[in-house]
Every structure is written in C-alpha cells, then in structure tokens.
Write a structure and sequence with these properties.
single chain, 252 residues, alpha/beta, 7-stranded mixed β-sheet, 6-stranded mixed β-sheet, 6 helices, 28% strand
C-alpha cells in the first residue's frame, strides 16, 4: 500500500500542481493540507470539493481553517473528509480525526496544531493520547500543523510506534529529515508546500518585502509560476508498517 502526504496547498497554483501530481502518481491513500488552498488563506467548501474529486482521501488544515465562515457547516457535513485540528477547544465545528477505508484497510487520519508561536489551543500531546485511545485502525496518519521544529520532533518521537506516519506542516519549507523512527513510524518534520516557488512561501515577494520593511500589515497575494509539489510518499509492507519512504519535491 502506498500513502501520499502533500504539504500546504497555496491558492490556485497549489491546487493545480497538487491535482496534476495526484493524478499522475496514483497512491492508495492521499492526505493533503488545504488550509491555504482558497486564495492563499483558508479553504472553502467548493475548493475542498475540487481536491476531493481529484482523488484526495482526506484534507487536513491548521490555524487558517476559520478564514471563510462558509466552511463551518461543511466541516460537520463532509463526512470527515475535511478536518480541523483536533486540539481546538470543544464546541468548534468539525472534527480532528476521521477513519476511512482504503485498499481494504481501515485508515485513521488525525490533525493537530502546535502551541509554540501559534494561536492558543489545547495540548497536542494530551489530545493525541485521547484520540488514539478511541481508534483501532491498522493505519494511523498524523498531520501536525506547527511552527517550531522542536515541537514537531518532540511529538513525533512521543507518538513513535503508535502511529504509522507522522508529518509536520505549516512552514511551507520541506525539511531534509525524512526517516523511519526507531519505533517504526515514518516521519518528516515538514512536508513543504504545493504552489509557486517564484515568490516567498507561495505569495508575492513584493508583498512580503513591504511587511518586513514597514512592519505594517498588508495584503498578501498568491504568487504564480514555477509550480512545485512537496510531500512524502510512504510504502507500507504487508504488516501495514512503513517499509520505505521518499520525499516528494518536483515541478508539476
């Protein structure tokens, strides 16, 4: 069985290249972070539908999931195909965990958000413990949307041997540390992004430069051109444990 995880999809360039890559490189399970898929921030029901129709199994998100209010009811009605971080406080729309069937196997996908340099949320370590207690799937995939590499590494090692694949998202820059941890979990600190590499993490260079030079908030526009996908492809053996993995970073 083959599992594909793609990093943060940024706007229409990210959607285009992610969809092309997914269609040209079939996998049994496809998990994509879509929290920047609609205009570079947040996700709408229409955009989520485009990704799901293209072959995405589950869409994960992060701190920008609430950017478009029309997604709130969709999070409850989409059958778990679009997740929000599971360690947001109780009472929020949607769920941070879902279980699907793929290639005859039960697959659980968990979405969590970090707390270091990020908006307030509940403890991801304790949330992961609670969520894992309530599932019995043979394959468990975690998307940890977090800023600090130390927090991602710590949670990855904390869950080593308890989940099948652990991938960090959020920074839009792929890390070079993909590996199988001692307990058998396939791991990477950050998947990177899907979108234009002609600007700064998927947005226009001039917009970003203005923010740095003036220290004033300003609109960020999605960058076009030089589209790349970044992510991780994991091959599972007959025992449903990672047998090999390969980082994905390609023009698409």
């Amino acid at each position: 069985m083959k599992v594909l995880l793609l990093g943060d999809v940024v706007g229409s360039p990210g959607r285009r290249c992610a969809v092309r890559y997914i269609r040209e490189n079939p996998h049994d399970i496809v998990v994509v972070n879509g929290e920047n898929a609609s205009g570079g921030i947040g996700i709408t029901p229409g955009v989520a539908g485009q990704l799901l129709d293209a072959g995405v199994s589950v869409i994960t998100t992060g701190n920008h999931v609430w950017a478009h209010r029309e997604v709130f009811p969709y999070l409850d009605s989409c059958g778990g195909r679009l997740l929000r971080p599971g360690n947001f406080p109780p009472g929020n729309p949607g769920s941070g965990m879902t279980t699907i069937r793929a290639a005859g196997e039960s697959v659980t996908v968990i979405n969590l958000q970090g707390r270091v340099f990020m908006p307030d949320c509940d403890c991801p370590f304790r949330a992961a413990d609670r969520m894992l207690q309530s599932q019995s799937a043979g394959i468990v995939i975690v998307d940890f949307h977090a800023e600090a590499t130390s927090e991602k590494i710590a949670l990855g090692r904390y869950l080593d041997g308890r989940v099948t694949v652990f991938a960090g998202t959020h920074t839009h820059v792929q890390t070079s540390d993909a590996c199988i941890l001692p307990g058998g979990t396939a791991y990477v600190t950050d998947l990177g992004m899907c979108g234009s590499s002609a600007g700064v993490i998927g947005v226009e260079y001039d917009d970003v430069l203005e923010r740095f030079l003036t220290c004033r908030p300003s609109r960020l526009s999605v960058c076009e051109g030089d589209e790349h996908v970044s992510g991780l492809s994991v091959t599972l053996g007959p025992d449903l444990k990672p047998a090999s993995l390969e980082t994905v970073h390609a023009r698409a």
